[in-house]
Amino acid sequence: MHLSSRCEETENISLGIEQTGKNSSHDLIHIQPRDINPTFNGSSFQSTGYSSNVSFLISPKQDNPEKKDEPMATVNNENLIFYPAFCFKASPTHFTWVKMGAADVHRLRKSSDFVGQNIFFYNNHPIQFVSLVGVIVARTDIPRRTILTLDDSSGATIDIAVLKKTSPKPSTTSQTTPATSQGAPSTSQEKTPWSSFSLTAPTATNLIQETHVTSKDHDEIDISALQPGTVVRVKGTLSTFRSQMQLHLERFWLVRDTNAEMQFLDTRLRFLIEVLSVPWVLTDEEIETLRDDAERCDERALEDKRRAERIAKKKIEREERHAKAIARRYEKEEYERERELRKVREDGERVMRKFGFGGKGEMDST
Q1: Coiled-coil regions in this chain (predicted)?
Q2: CA distance 343 to 312
Q3: Distance (Å, whole) CA 290 – CA 295
Q4: Does 225 lie in the same domain as 342?
Q5: Taking a C-beta distance cutoff of 8 angstroms, is the pair 60, 51 a contact?
Q6: What pLDDT does 179 receive?
Q7: Residue 344, in any domain of the structure
Q8: Are 276 and 109 in contact (CB under 8 A)?
Q9: Would you give the distance in Å from CA 310 to the centre of its chain?
C-alpha cells in the first residue's frame, strides 16, 4: 500500500528549468512513476528508485545560440590547451613540490606533445615534483632498490622507489673473534633491516654493502626509519612502471603528530580545489611575453655557447703556439748542442795531433 501510494504521488512529476532563451519547448524532464530518486551524472539521468523505467527529454540551456557552453575541465578532456615548454615557468605547479594524494597521482596523464620528457599533467597543469603524507604499509627489498608502499587514505596506494648503491664491504682485521666483551660469540654477518619481502641473496649481503641514494642527485639517504606503520611525508619525482605511477624518493620527514598530518591534508585539498581543478589559462599577451623571454634565453644560451667555443678555440690555438714555440726552442737547443759537440770534437783532435797521437783515423782506431 505504501509503494502504490508513493507511485501515485509521483505519477506526473515534471521538473522545470528556468529559461532565459527563446526556445523552451524541450526543457522539461518527465519521470515515469516508480522512479523515486533520479540522479544526474553530468550527461544523463539514472534512476535509483524501485524501477529503472525512466524517460526524460532535456535540451541544454543556451542564453546565446551562437555561444556554446565551455567543456568541463577534466584530466582526460581533449579540449584543454597544453602550452609549450617555454610557458612552464609561469605554471603554479611545474617548479614546485605539488601536494597531492595518491589517488590524484594515479590520475596524472602524459601528453603526446611531451614524449620522453617525464612531464605529467593534471588537467593541463605540468607536474614533475610531488609531496605526499601517509603511512608506510609495506617495505620490499629487491637487489637494486627498495619499494615502499604508502597509503594516504585517498582511496589508493602508491609505490615509492628508493635506489640502492652497492660497494664492497671494507675489510676488517678481526672478522672471526671467539667472543665479545660480554662473552657471547660474535658473527661476521650483520643484521639485515626488516623487510616485508626480500629477494637479496644472503651470500651477497656478506660481500657488499648497500646504501640508498636519491634518484636525482644520487646523494646518500638513510631510510632505516621508514618501516611499516610509520607516518611520513615524502617528496619525490614521478615515473611510471608497467603503466602504473610511482615515485622516486628525494627526501622525507617523519610526521610526529596528527595535527601536522591534518594541516598537510587541508593544504592539499585547498590546492586541489583552487589550482589543480581549474584549467591553467594564459592570455595571448602572456604567451608572447614568455616566448620573447624564451627567445632571449635561447639567444643568451647560444651566445654563451659561442663564447665558450671561442674560448676553447683560443685555448687550443694558444696551446698550439706554445707547442710550436717549445719545439722551435728544442730544435735551437739541439742545434746548439750539436755545434758545441762538433767544436769540442775538433778541439780534441787538434790537441791529440799536437801531442803526436796522429790524426782522426788513429783516434778512431784507439
Answers
A1: 299-336
A2: 46
A3: 9
A4: no
A5: no
A6: 41
A7: yes
A8: no
A9: 35
